[in-house]
């Protein structure tokens, strides 16, 4: 499903920025992509319980490191990264384009979203619209509205 169309259909405002393809936060910094984009920037990580029974989309500020032990304490699961096949089949995404907008493709809503409070409470947020050559900027409240339309499994961390 097209992310921008989904957002428009749900009356969620956004601004689009086009840029060279980037696969990591470091590459985005190198291209100065975030220099004109307001708000917090994040790492978006698709993880799973080791036996693939539960999946997690974890959103943390770009300047922080993932603490798998903390995620395991929160979820009660042993965690590892989901593989590319799971990423494609559940969120409809490929490596390097992980974003919360992939949740529009999770029609069975099996993904749990773990989001740092700093992102949740941010005035503005920005994410790839499931491709790594664009970034969408949204007001934080519009992002919260988006999440509430695609999942009921949100945990603030």
Please, could you describe this protein's structure?
The protein has helices at 3-9, 25-30, 68-75, 84-91, 117-120, 140-150; strands at 15-18, 40-49, 55-61, 79-81, 111-115, 124-127, 134-139, 154-156. It is an alpha/beta fold and 157 residues long. The chain has a single domain, classed as Alpha-Beta Complex (YbaK protein). Strands 1, 2, 3, 4, 5, 6, 7 and 8 form an eight-stranded mixed beta sheet that branches. Strand 2 and strand 3 form a beta hairpin. The protein is globular, with a radius of gyration of 15 Å.
In short:
This protein is α/β, with parallel strands linked by helices.
* CATH class (first level) name: Alpha Beta
Largest sheet features:
8 strands, mixed
CATH architecture: Alpha-Beta Complex
| Oligomer kind | single chain
The chain-level mean pLDDT equals 87
CATH topology: YbaK protein
> Structural class, from secondary structure content?
alpha/beta
Backbone shape? globular
Q: Could you name the CATH homologous superfamily?
A: YbaK/aminoacyl-tRNA synthetase-associated domain
Tally of individual domains: 1
Tell me what portion of residues adopts beta-strand conformation.
Answer: 25-35%
Weakly predicted, low-confidence segments: none
Number of H- or I-type helical stretches? 6
The N- to C-terminal Cα distance equals 28 Å
Radius of gyration: 15 Å
Question: Count the strands?
Answer: 8
Helix content bin: 25-40%
SSE sequence, one letter per element: HEHEEHEHEHEEHE
């Amino acid at each position: 499903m097209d992310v921008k169309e989904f957002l428009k259909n749900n009356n969620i405002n956004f601004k689009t920025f086009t840029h060279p393809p980037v696969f990591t936060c470091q590459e985005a910094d190198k291209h100065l992509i975030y220099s004109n984009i307001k708000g917090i920037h994040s790492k978006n990580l698709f993880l799973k319980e080791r036996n693939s029974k539960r999946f997690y989309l974890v959103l943390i500020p770009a300047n922080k490191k993932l603490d798998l032990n903390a995620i395991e304490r929160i979820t009660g699961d042993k965690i590892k990264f989901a593989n590319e096949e799971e990423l494609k089949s559940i969120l409809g995404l490929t490596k390097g384009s992980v974003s919360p907008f992939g949740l529009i493709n999770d029609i069975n809503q099996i993904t749990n979203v773990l989001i740092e409070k700093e992102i949740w409470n941010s005035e503005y947020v920005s994410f790839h619209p499931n491709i790594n050559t664009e970034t969408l900027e949204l007001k934080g409240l519009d992002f919260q509205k988006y999440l509430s339309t695609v999942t009921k499994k949100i945990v603030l961390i």
